[in-house]
Predict the 3D structure of the following.
Amino acid sequence: MGCYRLLPICYVLLICGLSSGQMGLERTPFALQATRNRLDLQKLLAHQLTAEDLLRLGMNGTVINSRKYEGVKEPCKSHVTLYENSYKYGQMWAMYMYDSYTKIPESVLMGSSSHYGNFEECIDVRDVEAQNGSTFHGKYCIAIVNLRPKITSKATVSAAGLGPLKLGACVPSSCDGEDTALIVQEDFMERLQTVSPMFGFVEATASVPDVQCQTKQDFELDTADWLVTSLLIVIGVLVILSTAYDFYTLHSESRINLLLAFSVYTNGSKLFAMSTSRSGSTIHCLHGIRFFSMAWVILGHRYGAAINAPSINLLSYMEIMSDWKYLWITNANLSVDTFLVLSGLLVGYMFFQKVPKTNTFNVPMYYIHRYIRLTPALAIVILLQVSLARYAGSGPIWSSARDLMKSNCEDTWWLNLLYVQNYVEQAVDKPCLNQAWYLAVDMQLFWVSPLVLVALWKWPKVGLCLSGALTIAGIISNFVVSYVNEFSATTLNPHAKDGADYGKLLYNPSHARFVPYLLGLLLGYLLVELNSRKITIKFRKVVALLLWLVTGGLLLLTLCIVHIFLQPDYEFDNVSAAFYNALGRPGWGLGVIMVIFLCHTGHGGVIDSFLSWPWFQPLSRLTYSMYLVHITVVMVQMGSVQTLNYLSDDNIMRTYFGDLIISILVAIVLSLTFETPFMVLEKELLSGRKKKITASTEPLAVVSTSESKDDQAPEDVSEENLPKERPDVSFLKE
């Protein structure tokens, strides 16, 4: 008997030793063998140890006793009784179910309110036979437990402050949400009273939405899945055939350009092309600015997702909101305005490079090109989100994220394809694709941009006066909206009148976001005018340095002033918040256009050299596709968590770089199969121009065309840049 008493100690030591040895990146043959030994020992101990022994190993809780479970329906009640009896007699499946069940929660005082148990261990219990011939599986549910005092006292109020808790429960699959709630409620109360008599004055109530329950599901495709799969197969076949035709006719002087639309070779050559030559007609620094802005967007969303996901130390980590070192995270919404500047700049730059030369403006093609440029890639991402994406993850909270994705898109998907969802309340409250709100803003500003473009082209003075008036009107409008509704200067420390919604009134609407876009459009006009008139801007070094100091100061001021509004002792001041909401975005946009202007006119120095590094060119071309897919990448990772996270900068940054790399890889596939091919089809079918294409025999070489450099896509015409402000990850809040 003495030897058996040593088994739990040996078991704990062995587990601890092996766990610490598995922190490396690779498993050695010794580690693999040790893992097999551990599994064998687990099986042995499961048969030798009693329930009391298991509890001594650190499983807080009580031994399962026969409980009444009043209100629990059949066959759930009989299956639960079988589970309890089987556990007492050491049946393996019952031991696994109990082992996976959440015990008394830990780290509650550090802000940990979600406790998941072991998801996989629960759903791996399959085909348990009951005495009446029925069978059931392990069913994993997340129960929401609220604690409230039966009588008022300091002790009970403190205890009640622990809730609500989200606890993982493993029950027979015959139990629905109601049954599970009753089971968890009775079980949890017994456990609480065992831990401390203080909890005898606390009442626990549990609820279990059916959507929070999961069993192990086989991979089954429904009608929508088959339709999307069929579409992907068709596109895949087109890619294979087009690429084969490309290689077959590689040295032919006469090639059918339309058949090259889906060629990975030709499109990849354009995508990965890098040019080291400096051209006055190309704004080289935009490549670096665009890529780093996209990386900033993903970083903001990663931090937001990490904070919204279940963690063991949320309260201690929430101090980052008031820490000046994290302003680049808490004010990451400025990346929105960077992309608005870039979008307006490229629209204006391309317009004034082409239209004044030909003296014609094809309005229908202006809009058609834009729509085809953006929509195919957006459409396939929406289709994947409502169908096959639900198989991309698995975990305690995955069902909630999966169902939210699909249900949000069922009624509003078509609004995304019309680019009007930012003005429709239903689509704002339940977005089909969280990040697509910006595409609506960008498209709507593109629709109305000819009003300013044509005015600047035909009547430059009138156009400049109109632009100035619109800028002032935009600033005043945002000040009034913010002041009247008492909006805070940051969504992280919200303040507003009852019923006022910052997102609907000041964040999502295009009329509240157009000033940075307009500033970018004016910069595009200015750069083309300087180039066409062959005017060279030369500043003295002292003047250039002064301009850089002013630019850097403006950017830092706009970024850092939010620090005031995030302090715990900050008292809301409506006037100062309204001024920031009115001037913050234009101020940041002005700083961005100053950076671009100084770099493009030859005063960028090492900053321009870095931002114009050729390796940023392919990454810059991928930003639109990266923007479309990165939220899904983040969501799949966070929705698949099995245990609580520990929040730290190191852990978040490691995950962030994974998000960034995976987003790039997925974006390459999306760009080569949907984004670039449909751009080529649009040019071939609608432009009416015949182009002769010759490709180098070197893999991923630059493809030369007879079209002008400015017509080559997608290098300098990807205006659809991409942003998003605050990390909107409500779908990850289980």
In short: The chain has a mean pLDDT of 80. The longest strand covers residues 138-149. Residues 448 and 655 are 40 Å apart (CA to CA). The chain has three domains: 1-20+28-49, 50-214, 225-726.
